[in-house]
Design a protein that fits this description.
alpha/beta, 9-stranded parallel β-sheet
Length: about 350
């Protein structure tokens, strides 16, 4: 049976010494990889952190989660990931998306899909040791290793998912976590893959899963409120509610929501973000949590993973709710409860 691989997001919002200790503890807890949040105003530099993580670990897969095509030139991105790969041969992936807080915190819009297409093509060319064209000037990295660096595209909308299927080595699907969503997302991915003469089996498919554990289901759902409301009501729009099987009541969004910095799902003050979501009834939050990710007791989360594994979901990227609090609770819950239960089920 194919095991379930589990990676964990680490935001660089703590001092580097603490981030490194956390990453080492994640490796010791049995996780398969770590993604380093790339948001230059909120976090320490992603590629510096990846380089340090490479020298402080021996087994973990490491990747930016996720970088973008506008805060660094494509040639700088290729150089950075190639340099990190020297420090952790065979353990590095490159994950790029349109940018969210990396854009919003500097007053610009996310990258377009045309910009994504161009940047991914350039990065793939350069890390493969080939020459790329820069406005008529050829350029080639002088220090590639010959080892493969998979280039994955993060995607949350239908057109982006199709593009990932067409041009990238794989995809980080930031869409939700239930049967209807999984099936719909895979249909978009397959459509894009077919345009390039490929199949889903040719792609690495990683599912980004919003994750939060607590002693009770109600406690976990309360903690999840900012994330559930942000993604389910402010961001999902018409893309994922229908395949998730959800019909939401008409809700008037109060001004308090827009005053949270930098936004609900990345809030510095999590208690204020929870309070700002009081306009959403508990039953709606519960439905959103069940569709969005792994929200509940550790035992509940383990059962949900086993359920989704039956659909072929075998590669997870866990995103704990908070950006300014580390994922220690999730690390401990998976080490002590989730991983043993998955092992008993033959999934680890």
């Amino acid at each position: 049976m194919t095991p379930v691989r589990v990676h964990l997001r680490v935001p660089g919002t703590s001092p580097m010494s603490e981030v490194m200790a956390l990453i080492q503890s994640i490796e010791a807890a049995g996780f398969d990889g770590v993604g380093i949040l790339d948001s230059q105003i909120l976090c320490r530099d992603t590629f510096v952190t990846l380089g340090q993580a490479a020298t402080h670990t021996s087994r973990l897969t490491l990747f930016p989660a996720v970088t973008n095509p506008f805060t660094r030139h494509a040639s700088v991105l290729a150089s950075a990931i190639q340099t990190v790969e020297e420090l952790a041969p065979g353990r590095i992936k490159f994950v790029i998306g349109t940018g969210y807080t990396s854009a919003s915190t500097i007053g610009r819009k996310p990258a377009t899909l045309a910009e994504m297409r161009a940047c991914i093509a350039t990065v793939k060319t350069l890390v493969a040791g080939k020459s790329a064209d820069f406005n008529g000037t050829p350029g080639r990295l002088g220090y590639t290793s010959g080892r493969s660096i998979p280039v994955l595209m993060a995607a949350s909308g239908p057109k982006a998912i199709e593009l990932a299927g067409e041009i990238a080595d794989g995809v980080l699907l930031m869409v939700g976590f239930n049967r209807g969503i999984v099936e719909r997302a895979l249909s978009y991915l397959e459509r894009g893959a077919r345009r390039a003469g490929r199949r889903l089996d040719d792609l690495e498919i990683v599912w980004a899963v919003r994750t939060g554990t607590a002693k009770t289901l109600d406690d976990a759902r309360r903690l999840a409120r900012p994330t559930a409301v942000h993604w389910g009501i402010l961001r999902w729009g018409g893309h994922w509610l229908e395949p998730a099987g959800l019909t939401l009541p008409k809700l008037e969004i109060p001004d308090a929501v827009w005053k949270i910095y930098p936004d609900l799902s990345h809030a510095h003050d999590w208690d204020a973000a929870i309070a700002a979501t009081s306009f959403v009834p508990d039953d709606v939050v519960a439905e959103l949590c069940d569709a969005m990710g792994l929200v509940g007791t550790p035992e509940h989360c383990a059962d949900r993973i086993a359920e989704m594994a039956k659909l072929g979901v075998r590669n997870l990227y866990l995103m704990a709710f908070q950006t300014f609090v580390g994922p220690e609770a999730e690390r401990d819950a998976f080490r002590d409860v989730v991983f043993p239960r998955l092992c008993s089920a033959g999934l680890r």
